[in-house]
Amino acid sequence: MNAPIKPGSKPERDALRHDMEAAGCTIADIAVEMRARFRIRPREAWRHAHGWTLQEAADRITQAANQRPRESVAADASLVGKWEKWPGPSSRRPSLSVLAATAAAFSCNIADLLDLDDRQALPEADLRVIDHQPQTPATAVRHVPAPPEPDPTGAELVSLAADESATWAQWAEASNVGDIALEQLMAEIRALAWDYLTSDPVTLFIRTRRLRDRVFALLEGHQYPRQSADLYVAAGFVCGMLAWMSSDLGRFRDAATQGRTAWLCAELAGHNDLRAWVLSTRSKVAFWDRRLNDALSYARRGASYPTAGTVSVLLACQEADAWSELGAHQEALTALTHAQNARDAMSGQDDIGGIFACQTARQENYAAAVQLRVGRPVDALRSADNALELLATQPVRAYGTEAQIRISQASAHLATGDAEGALEALAPVLSLPPDHRLAPVTRRLSGLAVGTGRLNDRGRAAVGLRGHRNVLRGFRPRGPGPLARRRHILI
């Protein structure tokens, strides 16, 4: 069975051109249909309307320029391809001389070679010249097929095959991204991953979305397979960040969508570290969306990949988190042991860092939450105290992590009957600005509110905590109001 013809492929373009020629259509008619049907730029559409390769168009443009006084254009296949793509990535703006020679070669007016994007990107001086040029009736020319040439043989056939391979090699050699650009993209991803720990989540979401759009646009172009793989890695980390941020903003369904796209990028890149970090992110999203079995599955699946850095530590912590919520106390404690073993056996450093890193303070934060759920408040308090001490030594203090640690600390104090310690631990959390009230913080505060209702202590601290109970229940993350006003960012 023959494979279906790809839309916009050469066979389909040729078939369309032949059908329109047979129907008596002009070259201009064919070019317009090419643009509409295959969504291509006008200069490329005119070339295909004539049925020319890039090199054939280059030869005719050079020949047309040689016939025009005081104008010199030396075109080749690569240049024609870049002129066709302009003003897109890895393109080159055609000069007035180039446009004039191209119009002459294609038997059309310069204006026929331009669309709105071209006109908006051209200098005003060039547009004035183009708009004041007399229009010719050349666009009504009908295509007259040249008499068929005899098939090449012998040395001519060998030379033709070599020329065809050289033309393809010129296309294959071209790339819309270089190593420096890839390095810059990864540097921007690292900066965003670190900035998110201390900055307004909505502002960082907007910046991250813009970076994602840049990476996606590059992937839609042409690059070496190695560079495509690197771009998929960048896209995977960016979509992973958007998933993480979306869940922190309480948008779990949107976060799950971003997580699936990130996973696709990781698979296309074949990158184990990215696979593990994406599964860690999806575990986090599922945990706060109360899909605990999914959270457990993602964490254990992520741990199956050989990785460097701290992702194996975080995955074990997330497994412990899910087990503890499911009531499997022994499994949760075993997973905490696995987290420490993973840190002891860790090799290499985290490539991104920020939210894609599990510092020791973050590990202790998970330990404190798990120990509380399995009924070990003294151990939880010790872990929370350790976490805060470690956090104080770090150059970047993540406000979300610190808030969760203090909530665990307050819960541990409550569980041991120390209302005064709980109130003291809670004070910095209650003063968080609205921009920093992420969903994990508000969820844990709601749980703490339940604990304050069980206090029998009549002391000042206990009374103060009970007075805060309604505040804790009403503590809301950023949204839905601000998110509703900025719904355009959640795409």
User: In sequence order, what are the helices and strands, one letter per element?
Assistant: HHHHHHHHHHHHHHHHHHHHHHHH
Largest sheet entry: none
Task: Just name the CATH architecture of the largest domain.
Answer: Alpha Horseshoe
The average pLDDT score comes to 82
Count of extended strands? 0
The CATH superfamily of the largest domain bears the name Tetratricopeptide repeat domain
Our count of domains comes out at: 2
Overall, the morphology is elongated
Low-confidence stretches: 1-6, 138-144, 458-463, 470-474, 478-491
> What structural class do the secondary elements suggest?
mainly alpha
Report strand %.
under 5%
Radius of gyration (CA) equals: 31 Å
> How many helices?
24
Characterization of this structure:
The chain is mostly helical and 491 residues long. It has 2 domains: 10-140, no CATH class; 179-489, Tetratricopeptide repeat domain (Serine Threonine Protein Phosphatase 5, Tetratricopeptide repeat, Alpha Horseshoe), CATH 1.25.40.10. The protein contains 24 helices and no strands. The protein has helices at residues 10-22, 27-38, 42-50, 54-66, 77-85, 96-106, 116-121, 124-131, 154-173, 179-195, 201-219, 225-248, 252-269, 272-288, 292-302, 311-325, 329-344, 360-373, 377-392, 399-415, 419-430, 439-452, 460-473, 481-485. Helix 4 (54-66) crosses helix 5 (77-85) and helix 15 runs antiparallel to helix 16. The chain is elongated, with a radius of gyration of 31 Å. 42% of the residues are buried.
Features:
about 500 residues; mainly alpha; Serine Threonine Protein Phosphatase 5, Tetratricopeptide repeat; elongated
